[in-house]
Design a protein that fits this description.
The chain has 475 residues and is of the alpha/beta class. It folds into three domains: 235 residues, TIM Barrel, CATH 3.20.20.60; 85 residues, M1 Pyruvate Kinase, Domain 3 (Beta Barrel); 119 residues, 3-Layer(aba) Sandwich (Pyruvate Kinase, Chain: A, domain 1), CATH 3.40.1380. The chain contains 16 helices and 22 strands. The strands form four sheets. An eight-stranded parallel β-barrel has the order 1-2-3-13-14-15-16-17, surrounded by seven helices. Strands 4-12-8-9-10-6-7 form a seven-stranded mixed β-sheet. Helix 4 packs across helix 5 and helix 13 crosses helix 14. The longest helix is centred in the N-terminal third of the chain and has 18 residues. It is elongated and about 80 Å long.
Length: 475
């Protein structure tokens, strides 16, 4: 059943999943996280979908997560007419608004003429068209040579892999979208085209300004600078996303597979979740079955150690979003328990104030494997222990997080293997462990004679950091 799979599925909302019934069927097929793509979002529409998802959480008990994905400084050309470009032509990008043709195009990036240098490349429409900069007037116009021509269509995206872009990671649109998303109490916020830790700090500051709750942040890795700066980015984010679409334009696409593997490994070492995104089952936008290559891509991403895999156009505009999710669930269930999957298992060594909790989570994961425990249950107020246990990947063990903090019920649902449940009867440790084990049994995660590892804080009423591990055999 999809509710027992551990790798999470992120589904992008769009015209193909506008009604409540479709969203419900997506949840039942295995969707765990719903992504709002603010590149194409209508606020009234977003509010309606979130309302549907929260109603369905009550109806299904699944705690689906809501992820707001900010557009970032996405560069585009303006409206074009009859723009068929030939190799070797000269072509001008201008920051003066105009209707483009086969001689020039409007560029939305206003400081482009000041930032770009001769010899740098401009890629348009996911790299289908390629230009080389001849010269810039440092004011409004950039003269280029067409290296790879074709039809230049309206409002297509622009990538500048060699250019040091001065535009901030949080545009004015992103600020407005983020404030709107914060007001709707979304569970995660992703920032596109991240380059440095300062980009993420800007978003953290904006969240702190508009919310008492610390909404976790995902850094989308789609720029060469982000790959290069990954060690300085990680302290400022709560998760990573390998956004292979723009990344595969900004760097040679043949380099993306090894970059993906290195980023997954780095996330595992940092004990933070990582999502693999873009074109995972692209042909299912128009077809009812995936290609063999797509099945292999999804399976290999899971075997690399991805916490979640993401669908974009497949669910937002595809012919059958529920079918796509079912296919992805089938692939996940086939491969995710393979002994071929390995994640780094070095013991925690940094003695921070969280060291005791880290050590207990680490040993709980090791013990779960040793005694074949069917579940590790943790009573958590912040979600910290759920992050830690998920990162250790205890094999064949359910990770059950119980909390009285309703905001983290849905937030934690993004994490590999984590299932969340509301529990607030904090009387004493014995009562709590007995009751949450009973809940786990009623929901089918454990049976008579199974071993369960329970993590709590004592005294339980103080909601402190986890300091106690108890092994229970279900009678």
């Amino acid at each position: 059943m999809s509710q027992f799979k551990k790798t999470k599925i992120v589904a992008t909302l769009g015209p193909a999943c506008r009604d409540k019934e479709t969203i419900k069927n997506m949840i039942l097929a295995g969707a765990n996280v719903f992504r709002i793509n603010f590149s194409h979002a209508d606020y009234a529409d977003v509010e309606q979908r979130i309302k549907f998802i929260r109603e369905l959480n009550e109806e299904t008990g699944r705690n689906s997560t809501i992820l707001a994905d900010l557009q970032g400084p996405k560069l585009r050309v303006g409206v074009m007419e009859n723009a068929i470009l030939k190799d070797g032509d000269t072509f001008t990008f201008t920051t003066e608004e105009c209707v483009g043709n086969d001689k020039k195009a409007f560029m939305t990036y206003q400081t482009f003429p000041q930032d770009v240098k001769a010899g740098e490349h401009i890629l348009v429409d996911d790299g289908k068209l390629l230009f080389e900069v001849i010269e810039s007037d440092n004011n409004t116009n950039v003269l280029t040579k067409v290296i790879r021509g074709g039809e230049l269509k309206s409002k297509k995206g622009v990538n500048l892999p060699n250019t040091n872009i001065s535009q901030p990671a949080l545009t004015q649109k992103d600020i407005e979208d983020a404030i709107f998303a914060i007001g709707l109490e979304v569970d995660w916020i992703a920032l596109s085209f991240v380059r440095t830790g300062d980009d993420l700090k800007m978003l953290h500051d904006l969240i702190a300004e508009h919310s008492d709750y610390k909404i976790p942040v995902i850094a989308k890795i789609e720029k060469p600078e982000a790959v290069k700066n990954i060690d300085s980015l990680i302290p400022y984010c709560d998760a990573l996303m390998v956004a292979r679409g723009d990344l595969g334009v900004e760097i040679p696409m043949n380099e993306v597979p090894l970059v993906q593997k290195s980023l997954v490994l780095r996330a595992k070492q940092a004990r933070i979740p990582i999502i693999i995104a873009t074109q995972m089952m692209e042909t299912m936008i128009e077809n009812l079955v995936p290609t063999r290559a797509e099945v292999n891509d999804v399976a290999n991403s899971i075997m690399d150690g991805a916490d979640a895999v993401m669908l974009s156009g497949e669910t937002s505009v595809g012919i059958d979003p529920v079918n796509v999710i079912q296919h992805m669930t089938n692939i996940i269930e086939s491969v995710e328990n393979s002994p071929l999957i390995e994640v780094p298992r070095e013991a925690p060594h940094i003695k921070t104030n969280r060291y005791i909790s880290k050590a207990i989570c680490h040993h709980a994961a090791l013990m779960a494997t040793d005694i074949d425990a069917k579940a590790i249950s943790t009573l958590t107020n912040s979600g910290y222990t759920a992050f830690q246990i998920s990162a250790w990947r205890p094999s064949n063990t359910h990770i059950l997080a119980f909390t009285s903090n309703k905001r983290i019920l849905t937030m934690l649902n993004l994490l590999w293997g984590v299932k969340t449940f509301y529990y607030s009867n904090l009387v004493n440790t014995d009562t709590t462990i007995r009751e949450i084990n009973q809940m786990a049994r009623e929901k089918g995660f454990i049976e008579k004679d199974d071993y369960v590892i329970n993590l709590t804080s004592m005294p339980v009423k103080e909601k402190g950091m986890v300091n106690t591990m108890r092994v229970t055999q279900i009678d």
